[in-house]
């Protein structure tokens, strides 16, 4: 029986004399009146709860990461920015284009006429080593751009893994809540029958329904949480609003790979993309200094062609052009590149320290979760038997309702903590992978192949 009251915040003294006895009368009737028949059977209520969560396409974490790589606008932007940097760097390494010149010069002096015609081809010639140095600088610029792009990929892959875990954990919590609530649904149906047969009092039925409503309310909240987690996960890996929604296959049951701090640190130094980017930027800055110094020696331009004159003379035209570096010795550019090198080296030191701190913090948190998981998870599994035993004894009138309520609360608390613990366990593992610069999907393949 559901009864709702709306109390006015301002009640006059005369109204209170009338309202107070009425409220007491209504409350007494609600408590002691015969309970209404249940509106839904346990199976119907269970189906109604499941119906509130729409069907979705199940995908693994590997598939989620692949979908994200394909559909993520952030990654598309990161790739485009990297390609822009690489393209601009490559442009500086191309040979200069040749120049062709054709000219005709008519000359006049009174009635006399004469003319000269030129057909010339000019080509700038680079000194040995100039182009190779620019090519080397461009390669380092490209490596830095790719490192930045890979860093974005790893960071976003970690976000996908987190969303995957949150959606899977929300679904697991709802399943345990449904198991707990089904106990009260079944007991409520039994008590309705026993009440009609006069075996239990109306108060006992009402007390049971209060406990059932408490868990039904939790199911409603958990269902909303699941829908929101799935929506966030779907929008992350498949942002098209018209595309079918997706959901994780399940919360991982196996334990992640155990990694030592030395192993994690070693792998971070060798594969963390931020470190590769910082090192490439240092190398690019060092090479750019050499490029700026070589620019003080200008590249010559050679010209060759053919000339004809109106008086019948004709012949080959040869020429050379070399800028004289009297005023512009490229000194400001050299100083600018030296400052860039100093900044790049400082940035590399900062990134190295940040990576070491991140790996150490992530590893400490992961090890802590391993210890907590081993200590707590096995004990939490005993809650299944406790709830089943309390339910059986309650149905046989061997224990009071309070024992069943305590067992249900203990079961839900234990299972909720178990889900949270496993989700956080994998979350800390993925955070450690991110700190090492590894992708979650590759690590899962390694784990599954090693188990086989």
Give the tags.
alpha+beta, two-stranded parallel sheet, 12 helices, elongated
Which helices and strands, and how do they pair?
Elements (H helix, E strand, L loop, with lengths): L12 H20 L9 H10 L5 E3 L1 H11 L1 H19 L7 E11 L2 E13 L5 H67 L5 H36 L8 E3 L12 H11 L1 H22 L6 E9 L4 E8 L9 H50 L2 H13 L5 H36 L3 H12 L1
Parallel strand pairs: 1-4
Antiparallel strand pairs: 2-3, 3-5, 5-6
Explain the overall architecture.
By secondary structure, the chain is α+β, with helices and mostly antiparallel strands. 68% of the residues lie in helices and 10% in strands. The protein contains 12 helices and 6 strands. It has a 4-stranded antiparallel β-sheet with strand order 2-3-5-6, with no helix packed on it. The chain has a two-stranded parallel ribbon with strand order 1-4. β2 (99-109) and β3 form a beta hairpin. It is elongated, with a radius of gyration of 39 Å. It starts with 12 loop residues before the first helix and ends with a helix. Mean pLDDT is 81; it is low at 1-51 and 442-452.
